[in-house]
Design a protein that fits this description.
Immunoglobulin-like; 16-stranded antiparallel beta sheet; 954 residues
Length: 954
């Protein structure tokens, strides 16, 4: 037996050697298996050849090595550091060469076989690795098994002849960098290690080496046809359907079809060679028909998300509970589809998608985005030497996942340019599995794909595609379209989701899209709360671009996910306040409304005064009905009235309890009285102060000092916000990015000039000009104060002067309160909302702590505004607005928020700073996509808005 330090395999473009052909994955059979997850011995070297491979010998003493959890990444367990890049390779681009500085982790596990493990005469065994980044070389009991690449793909070795009852030594050498790294340039952390399960599987003699479940559905006949192809003779049984046939034999029976809305699965068994393999069979047919993706004869609308695998402490080493949590959160927020960006997920995740119901675009472990820096020169996907590796990756995805009914589209990969290798992959997949369409966004001419797909298109271009006005190759114009990425959910946002959804629903060709992305990839870190790119001293990094999810790293839903849930809700509830009815529309593709119960509430000034059940017929998909509401209660008080109608689960499901709100609608019946203050008290000078009703002002500057017993600090016009990731945009974008332009023009450092303090018989008027240094443009701001005995009125008139070439970030007033904790308000809530992300704001009465009003974006930025506020109470003050306003309150200034890089930089002060905003600029998703639509721009135009202040009785 020889031991060597040869590392040529690391840079070889082949996918590996010694591994078995790929095959279908299944959770368990009645054959024996042994999990090798757990604590392993670990040694880290700086280079691929720093140590020889004598550690693989039996009897090697590794007692002095560290212990490491497998599955896991060594850089998240104290050995080196993670590194984040979006698309730049973190090593010199010289394919297939990689740096000599190549962190290499040697892993050792000694294990005994269970006492009931079958002997060799009863078959063999295979050793399975479900995911290793990026290249692994494997030995068992001193014998070299081979090596492989393809980090997010399964690899198996035959090991039956090498096993012994006790003291088996499994040795795995893992290299961080390899030729495979050039194919894995996804937007994510670089995290080496054995990060998915390692399992020893007994393979009984005569058992099926692989099997392919074909389960189609004829929607016209209501029947399903089942055929299970297998490499071994066996039988297939499905007791609920009375099926018991030989493998390879088709059988047609009446069935209930599978869909993401009605995920009907039938339990079956494949019996071959003494092994019983469980089958979970979903009957469904995917086809391209009339230029559309149809499932079971119906067009589907993807309301999807892109999902990287992530845990803030374990990285991509996910357990089943975390995967289930993801799927449950998606279902509860009306998400119906997942694109597995940008690699096949842990196979158990697809089991959950089958069980609970999600459409899946299953994506190959392929991205070569870094080659864009050299005009795609030397791109592996257009180099025939790499084609075997590409075909291996395609086969390992398809063969592993082919039996999942949830998988309805195969994807070749992401952002890898174009080339002959992709064509070869598409041809192989079409030949192996013609039952599913093939996707690849980079193929704009759709030469190799069955779907026209794009990323981050502006709304106007999406509409042109929907209308068939996009031009391009004829084949492309005849294909269905979806946005494989849109709505970039980085920081505060995305805005404009409702506008996209209206387009998807208006044009049949537009089959929806997948928001980028599901989760913020923050790394839990005691220094920062959550760390992002650059926090580990990376030579190259892309900052917090890795934090662009609809859920925070700890999987708490962000306001963006709450907005998305409302935007994509599967039931539309629209009110007719004159007719006293609601129009209910079933927007499901497959399910009727029989699983839902409807409830109404009649509210006055945010308080529910009556409620009840609302009978709604079990509408079929696409159907609508006018449903009469009851008469408003005769004893209802006067005020602003709303009807709110909710669609709730009538009974518990596998993904949510009874009463879970699926959809809701709200509409006004009567308008609210506008607040005003009759000028019954005039201003009175008295030394250094002016008193006006319950308020006092500085006599020299006209600055408000107090309202009754409540001290007020620094009330003045405010136009600045701590820029969001979407305000700042991405540096490669050619469109105007407002955040940098705002700073260049000085809107973050406005100066306030006092022009006049005018004391009249009925009002105090303060005239100012607000403008940035070094610029000639500005805003004239006039504050007119009036009062009665207990209330103080403020009307702010704003007039721009000079040449304003940019919209404003915000427009309103800001002031400080010495103490404030609880906040009560009547208006939109309960969460934050902005002009183009306001669909989920429900009008009602809400309350919160000041701290709870903050949204903990991993990189601090503008957040926490409540929209449509009629009145608010905090810090002993009541504020009413005319018109409604946006409310923000925080324990630090906007300037402190703007300067913070992490949440731990935000230190609460002694003052609560309150913003009452007449208007805010929209959000958009320009951190990677388009900015706000023009109708959400806050243009510098004349504006007038009013507030009424009063002290809240103690």
């Amino acid at each position: 037996m020889s031991f060597r330090t040869d590392t040529a395999y690391v840079e070889d473009v082949s996918p590996g050697s010694g591994v078995l052909p790929p095959r279908a994955w299944y959770a368990a059979s009645d054959a024996k298996s042994l999990s090798l997850n757990g604590s392993w011995r670990f040694r880290l070297s700086d280079t691929a050849d720093a140590e020889d491979d004598s550690f693989a010998r039996e009897g090697y003493d590794a007692s002095g090595w560290a212990e490491l959890a497998v599955p896991g990444h060594w850089v998240l367990q104290g050995h080196g550091s993670p590194a984040y890049t979006n698309h730049l390779y973190p090593f010199p681009v010289d394919p297939p060469r990689v740096p000599t500085e190549n962190p290499t982790g040697d892993h050792l596990r000694v294990f005994d076989l269970p006492g009931d493990w079958p002997d060799r005469s009863d078959g063999g065994a295979v050793l399975r690795f479900d995911g290793v980044e990026s290249c692994a070389r494997v030995w068992l009991n001193g014998a070299e098994l081979g090596e492989f690449k393809g980090s997010r793909l399964p690899h198996e070795f035959t090991v039956g002849a090498l096993l012994k009852p006790a003291g088996n030594v499994l040795a795995v050498r893992v290299h961080q960098w390899s030729s495979g790294s050039y194919l894995e340039d996804q937007d994510q952390w670089w995290l080496p290690g054995i990060f998915r399960d390692v399992t020893l599987l007994h393979r009984p003699a005569g058992s099926a080496p692989d099997f392919f479940v074909h389960a189609s559905y004829d929607h016209a006949a209501g029947t399903g046809t089942l055929r299970v192809d297998s490499g071994a003779l066996g039988r297939v049984s499905v007791p609920d359907l009375g099926i018991d046939v030989a493998t390879g034999e088709p059988v047609t029976v009446p069935v209930e079809p599978w869909s993401a809305e009605t995920p009907r699965l039938y339990d079956g068994v494949l019996a071959a060679g003494g092994e019983q393999v469980p089958l979970r069979i979903g009957f469904r047919t995917v086809e391209l028909s009339d230029g559309l993706i149809k499932v079971n004869g119906r067009t589907v609308l993807f309301k999807g998300v892109n999902r990287h695998e992530w845990h803030p402490e374990r990285g991509r080493a996910l357990d089943l509970a975390t995967m289930r949590e993801d799927v449950l959160l998606m279902k509860r927020h009306n998400v119906n589809a997942v694109r597995t960006s940008h690699y096949p997920p842990h196979p158990a995740f697809l089991d959950l998608c089958d069980e609970l119901g999600l459409w899946v675009v299953d994506e190959c472990d392929l991205e070569t985005h870094g080659f864009i820096e050299q005009g795609w020169r030397d791109n592996p996907v257009d180099d025939d030497r790499w084609t075997p590796a590409l075909l291996d990756r395609a086969a390992r995805m398809v063969e592993r996942d082919k039996n999942h009914p949830a998988v309805v589209v195969w994807s070749l990969g992401n952002e890898a340019g174009t080339g002959r290798g992709l064509t070869a992959m598409a041809e192989w997949i079409h030949g192996r599995d013609p039952s599913r369409p093939v996707h690849y966004e980079g193929d704009f001419d759709c030469r190799d794909t069955d779907v026209y797909s794009r990323m981050y298109l502006p709304h106007a271009e999406v509409e042109r595609i929907g209308r068939g006005l996009d031009g391009g190759a004829r084949r492309r114009r005849e294909l269905p379209f979806f946005l494989c990425e849109y709505g970039h959910a980085m920081g505060n946002g995305p805005g404009g989701l409702a506008d996209y959804q209206r387009l998807f629903e208006a044009h049949e060709r537009l089959q929806g899209g997948f928001v980028w992305e599901w989760i913020d990839h923050g790394v839990k870190d005691e220094r920062f709360g959550y760390a992002y790119g650059g926090d580990f001293g990376e030579e190259l990094h892309d900052g917090n671009f890795v934090c662009d999810g609809l859920v925070f790293p700890d999987r708490r839903p962000s306001p963006g996910l709450v907005e998305y849930k409302k935007v994509i809700e599967p039931v539309a509830i629209e009110g007719d306040p004159v007719g006293g009815a609601v129009r209910v529309t079933n927007k499901h593709d497959f399910a009727d409304l029989s699983a839902l119960a409807f409830a109404w509430a009649y509210q006055v000034d945010g308080e529910t005064v009556a409620s009840g059940a609302l009978p709604v017929p079990p509408l079929a998909p696409g159907e609508s009905a006018e449903v009469k509401l009851p008469e408003p209660p005769a004893a209802a008080p006067a005020g602003e009235a709303h009807w709110t109608v909710r669609a709730l689960l009538a009974a518990g499901t596998a993904w949510a309890p009874a009463g879970h709100v699926v959809a809701w609608g709200q509409f006004a019946v009567s308008a609210r009285p506008r607040p005003s203050v009759p000028a019954s008290r005039g201003p009175v000078r008295g030394g250094s102060l002016i008193t006006l009703g319950p308020a006092s002002f500085d006599a020299r500057t006209g600055a408000l000092r107090a309202i009754g017993p409540v001290a007020v600090t620094g009330l003045r016009l405010d136009v600045w916000r701590a820029t969001t990731d979407n305000d700042d945009g991405a540096p490669w974008q050619s469109d105007v990015r407002h955040g940098p332009l705002w700073r260049e023009l000085g809107l973050h450092r406005m100066r306030h000039r006092l022009d006049a303090v005018e004391v009249a018989e009925d009002a105090l008027t303060v005239r100012t000009r607000v403008a940035p240094a070094a610029r000639e443009f500005g805003l004239s701001a006039v504050y007119r104060w009036t009062a009665d005995a207990t209330r103080l009125g403020l009307t702010v008139s704003v007039t721009p002067d000079g040449d304003w070439t940019v919209p404003l970030p915000r427009l309103g007033v800001r002031f400080g309160l010495a103490a404030a904790d609880r906040v009560r308000w009547y208006g939109g809530g309960p969460g934050e909302a902005y002009p183009d992300s306001v669909t989920a704001a429900e009008v009602g009465r809400w309350q919160s702590d000041v701290d709870e009003l903050q949204t903990p974006y991993v990189r601090p930025q503008e957040n926490g505004a409540r929209a449509g506020v009629r009145w608010a109470e905090l810090g002993g003050l009541r504020v009413e607005g005319d018109p409604e306003f946006f409310l923000t309150a925080r324990r630090w200034t906007t300037e402190h928020l703007d300067a913070a890089a992490h949440l731990t930089d935000l230190v609460p002060g002694d003052t609560v700073w309150v913003n009452l905003d007449h208007a805010l600029h929209g959000l958009g998703s320009q951190s990677c996509g388009p900015g706000p639509l023009p109708r959400y721009f806050l243009r510098a135009e004349p504006a007038r808005f009013s507030f009424v202040f009063s002290a809240v009785p103690a």
